[in-house]
Please model this.
Amino acid sequence: MTGRGTDEIVADLGSQSRRGGAVLEHGGMTRPTAPLRDVVGHALEQAHNRLMVTAAVLSLAFGVIAIRVADVTLLGPNVDTHAALAAAGTPQGGRADIIDRNGALLATSLATASLYADPKLIIDPKAATRKLVKALPELNHDEVLAKLSSEKRFVWLKRNLTPRQHYAVHVLGLPGLFFQNEERRFYPSGSLTSHVVGFTGVDNNGLAGLEQSFDKKLKASSTPLQTSIDLRLQHILRREVQAQVDEFKGIGAAGLIYDVNTGEVLAMVSLPDFDPHEPAGLDKDTLFNRVTLGVYEMGSTFKIFNSAMSLDTGRIRLSDAFDATHAIHVGRFTISDYHGKNRWLTVPEIFMYSSNIGSVRMALQIGTATQKQFMAKMGFLQPVPVEIPEAAWPLVPHPWRDINTMTIAFGHGISVSALHLVVASASVLNGGIMVKPTLLKRQPGVPIQGERVVSERTSEQMRKLFRLVVTDGTAKFADVPGYLVGGKTGTADKQRGRHYAQNARLSSFIGAFPMNAPRYIVFVMVDEPKPSAATHGYATGGWVAAPAVGRLVRQIGPLLGVEPVDENRPEIRQAMAIEHLNRGPALAAYQPDARQE
Amino acid sequence: MLTFDRTDHSLFGRWWWTVDRWMLGALGVLIGYGTVLIMAASPAVAERIGLDTYHFVERHVINLIPALIVMIAVSLLTPRGIRRMALVVFLVSLALVAATMVIGVEIKGARRWIHVPGMSIQPSEFVKPAFAVVAGWLFSLQRTSPGFPGNLVSILLYGFVAAALLMQPDLGMAFVVSAVWFTQFFLAGLNVALVGVLGVLGVCGLVAAYFAFPHVTSRIDRFLDPSHGDTYQVTRSLEAFSNGGLFGTGPGQGTVKMSLPDAHADFIFAVAGEELGLLWCLVLIALFAFIVLRGFSRAFKDTNLFVVLAVGGLLAQFALQALINMGSSLHLMPTKGMTLPFVSYGGSSLIALGFGMGMVLALTRKRFGQGDQT
Model:
């Protein structure tokens, strides 16, 4: 034992003790002291016992792992695997359809295959490219070759193949090419409803129109979204509006067909429109919705609200007359009439001749505060509450001074969208109830919420004024026998920078029919129409927009089930009659005091 | 196959007839199993991070050679030789762990590695088995050599080791070292009341770690409440097992490796589950259990307290590492970056494993009446 370190001696005592024991049996050799041997023996026994415990614990742990593996592999984890989702029958078609009010498809989803490659698995990029371009001639040879020769592990070659293309690539049997199942949004009516329905991006997220505002709903459910749009009316409206744009070389146009009682938009056209399948790269103007997002100084159509406001206060009556003899000078502004009569005009005459001077005088009598309040009731101070994200804030004067009151009387100094104008006009015509506009079909039986904004009497008087404009005023081209069309023209000079442009205007006509019990508004507006020889140099609302509305009513009236009436029937004549339209010679000697009576 | 005559008394001859050939065989099977899995799992990972397809396979095989040499060479030693070597390795590697604070390379927020030409070494991997042996020795001294403060020295050394590991910080390693040290203390006869006290202290340590280290907080929160944060890896891992089912998708046919960043290391068990299926997973678990229990049974028959404690510690370490890795993949515990011994790709840690299991093989060799000599 000499020469060994103490530490080793003591460390080996365990084995030595055993050896000691063994030696003892043979007898004779020195043996370790008994207490130490007992201590070591005890320690060893304890270690062995506890080793058993440790072994048992570890075995248990391995057992738990084994059970857990069996649990996870056989019963599956609590996560939704694709297989589980498929088994649960979750809609695989994904995005729900969008349909028109009669069930015609406006947007649907098609399952397609998209082609991608893992260039690393392509054996011969040149040969593969040659075959691929032969199968899909629209692919560019050099681009494909560059993609297939790259070091990447994933390159898109073509998204959304047709079944025929899918087959053509499939039979090439090239390794390294793969298909990704995708769905593609398809719009059967193409550009016809592009501004209403909107479009989705390449990953099927809604990026505009109803596709955007109902994105979550469309993704979540498979029930189609039913819109208020009638595809037939939409088609007719687009054709007629396009015809006016072509004839007058306008830069754009807007058109609306609107149910005055339910607030449903039956057709909505903004030109130019676009192919919703390829929205990428289109300029802003093409994607711009002139019906809801564009705000314009509407011009004379605003006299609808000036008149309705005046009559509704009860302080001005139909028979009242105003001095339209001279232009009004306010500061550096001059307000004059386009179709100047240079005499006193009654309220109906102011409306039908679209007298700016008369309108200003009416507004001044009513006052700024009342006007602002009324415009708020008409919804002109808020974005129009429609379901697409393209809803503009109007531009309203702040502060609202008397000069604003004067210009707003004939539709300048306040900019609203076409939809604003139509919705407010509907409330004036439908008996006085403001109904929220909607692009979704109203379900029959669900009561329509509305708020009274003008009295029934005012509404009745306004209908007569509307009719008068078509029978005797600025919009004779809009008349359609039997449909009692009424309306109001508007021709507004467009602002260019800080001035009004000389030859850039918005010509519009808001028509409604039948005027004895209005059901529909038809609105047409052409942006920057150029006068033509056929219109004798005119490009006003009466010449540009009113004829289109006439043609529209002629076509959609039967479709909408509006029965033509005999306009000479006594009850119709009476309904449309205005007592104090023209006081004839008496008006020349008309005294302002007379209306105080 | 190499055969040795019973009467061959050369170094290898004696080794062959005394070493635990069952355990040796099981380790061989485990290494083979691991190589197959690395071949299945790592190409996807290697390609994703821009390395050669078989980078990890090659590195694994290259690291296996020195690991096997170290394992066999160490298993040739006597218990005394093991003790001396473990002490030297322990001191050197503990010094290196301390040195990582100064010359170490910081990877993912922790300083654990030292770069030497050709490879980077994680010295704490060597501290782990060496300390198990040293601690076993000290505990045995306490019992066999009255007057020698073995427990006290062991506690002091443990304090050093734990502090060094926490400073890196390498919480997983600190946890394993602590658990193993505690197990050895328990085997060495720590009285039951103190077992309870240390157990409570351990739990307190874990709670403290939860609050002290933000990444620990986050991992534990995510474990306890999967909706709390990103559980991408574990979710993928569980999907892989479920995808594999009873028989698996077949070697190389799985998809989890395409999306799991650590498919060749921390989550290799998920690859096994997906590609080989439940049955082969059970075989793998059985292999680990066999090695551990086989070693325990050898230790149970041994009469040298030091051998019992050292083998118990080394095998507890081996078992714990396997259990933590598999448990993480199965969402039984928070994810903890720990490799599956001999199966995961582990680089230089393979050599440390070879060193540790070599010591187990050496200590469990049959010794005929001369516990000291052979």
Notes: The CA atoms of residues 261 and 430 of chain A lie 6 Å apart.
